């Protein structure tokens, strides 16, 4: 007789943490990630996290370092454990023992306008070309692209409605005429193939009732980059980086770009000033000015 496996019962501590997160309207994905990181801490301890000591916290973080856990994962674990200790367990003394290593901030990879054109042209089909076109043409995050619905495209106001983007915030993104035409091409093709449902996902996945997965979009970008002969490391987020950088090089005000990207802090958007090469090239070096003065000339540019 076959034994059907059953799910492990939810412990009172986990349920309390879930309730605490729900009361604060934290997203389902964040809740899932927090529980996963707390579960890893419990597995290391070999007992319930509510019995942890300051030395246990220290040993766990040393264990992560010694086993080469990435800094982004360590940072996410710290966020989860801080919530557990500060909110659920009311043990801020343990929370203060957590060490968050600051990652050096790397400049994002950015494609040239020509490379973006080649990438879109090499996309595997009109659906992916339209989806990647949205990522670049409106500067959307890959999860925002994946969860677009047909009703989010407002062709009268030329806007794309983003519901519950990062931080569960709604915002409007730009809809250019060329992007609208690309989306219409996909709309007509999707209707012909009967894969677009009324009020359904703009980019359905393998099942028409589910949205396309971010993994599918990532795979499509990688395939397109290889087909286009682009040697840079490319992901869907590269198109968002390129959108911001190209707008900055067109002298669009950085505060406007901040709104379009949905950034909470201007300093996050300001990172793109470091990769806007056309802007950098347009600046006259003080050495050029000095040499021009010495030669009695006015520097060009």
TrEMBL record:
<dbReference type="InterPro" id="IPR050090">
    <property type="entry name" value="Tyrosine_recombinase_XerCD"/>
</dbReference>
<dbReference type="InterPro" id="IPR011010">
    <property type="entry name" value="DNA_brk_join_enz"/>
</dbReference>
<keyword id="KW-0238">DNA-binding</keyword>
<dbReference type="InterPro" id="IPR044068">
    <property type="entry name" value="CB"/>
</dbReference>
<keyword id="KW-0229">DNA integration</keyword>
<dbReference type="Pfam" id="PF13495">
    <property type="entry name" value="Phage_int_SAM_4"/>
</dbReference>
<dbReference type="GO" id="GO:0003677">
    <property type="term" value="F:DNA binding"/>
</dbReference>
<dbReference type="InterPro" id="IPR013762">
    <property type="entry name" value="Integrase-like_cat_sf"/>
</dbReference>
<feature type="domain" description="Core-binding (CB)">
    <location>
        <begin position="8"/>
        <end position="89"/>
    </location>
</feature>
<feature type="domain" description="Tyr recombinase">
    <location>
        <begin position="106"/>
        <end position="285"/>
    </location>
</feature>
<dbReference type="Pfam" id="PF00589">
    <property type="entry name" value="Phage_integrase"/>
</dbReference>
<keyword id="KW-0233">DNA recombination</keyword>
<dbReference type="InterPro" id="IPR004107">
    <property type="entry name" value="Integrase_SAM-like_N"/>
</dbReference>
<comment type="similarity">
    <text>Belongs to the 'phage' integrase family.</text>
</comment>
<dbReference type="GO" id="GO:0006310">
    <property type="term" value="P:DNA recombination"/>
</dbReference>
<protein>
    <submittedName>
        <fullName>Integrase</fullName>
    </submittedName>
</protein>
<dbReference type="InterPro" id="IPR010998">
    <property type="entry name" value="Integrase_recombinase_N"/>
</dbReference>
<dbReference type="GO" id="GO:0015074">
    <property type="term" value="P:DNA integration"/>
</dbReference>
<dbReference type="InterPro" id="IPR002104">
    <property type="entry name" value="Integrase_catalytic"/>
</dbReference>
């Amino acid at each position: 007789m076959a034994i059907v496996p059953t799910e492990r019962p939810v412990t009172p501590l986990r349920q309390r943490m879930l309730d605490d997160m729900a009361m604060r309207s934290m997203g389902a994905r964040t809740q899932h990630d927090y529980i996963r990181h707390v579960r890893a801490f419990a597995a290391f301890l070999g007992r319930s996290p509510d019995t942890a000591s300051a030395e246990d916290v220290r040993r766990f973080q040393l264990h992560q370092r010694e086993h080469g856990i990435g800094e982004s994962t360590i940072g996410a674990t710290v966020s989860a454990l801080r919530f557990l200790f500060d909110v659920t367990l009311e043990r801020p003394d343990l929370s203060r023992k957590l060490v968050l290593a600051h990652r050096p901030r790397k400049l994002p990879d950015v494609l040239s306008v020509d490379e973006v054109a080649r990438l879109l042209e090499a996309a595997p089909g009109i659906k992916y070309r339209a989806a990647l076109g949205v990522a670049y043409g409106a500067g959307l995050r890959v999860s925002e692209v994946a969860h677009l619905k047909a009703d989010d495209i407002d062709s009268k106001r030329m806007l794309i409605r983003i519901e519950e983007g990062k931080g569960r915030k709604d915002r409007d993104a730009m809809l250019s005429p060329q992007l609208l035409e690309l989306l219409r091409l996909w709309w007509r093709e999707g209707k012909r193939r009967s894969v677009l449902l009324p009020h359904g996902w703009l980019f359905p996945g393998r099942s028409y009732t589910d949205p396309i997965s971010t993994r599918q979009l990532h795979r499509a970008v990688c395939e397109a980059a290889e087909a286009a002969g682009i040697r840079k490391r490319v992901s869907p987020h590269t198109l968002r980086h390129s959108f911001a950088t190209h707008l900055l090089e067109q002298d669009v005000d950085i505060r406007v770009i901040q709104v379009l990207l949905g950034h909470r802090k201007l300093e996050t958007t300001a990172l793109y000033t470091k990769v806007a090469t056309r802007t950098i090239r347009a600046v006259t070096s003080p050495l050029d000015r000095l040499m021009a003065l010495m030669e009695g000339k006015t520097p060009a540019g």
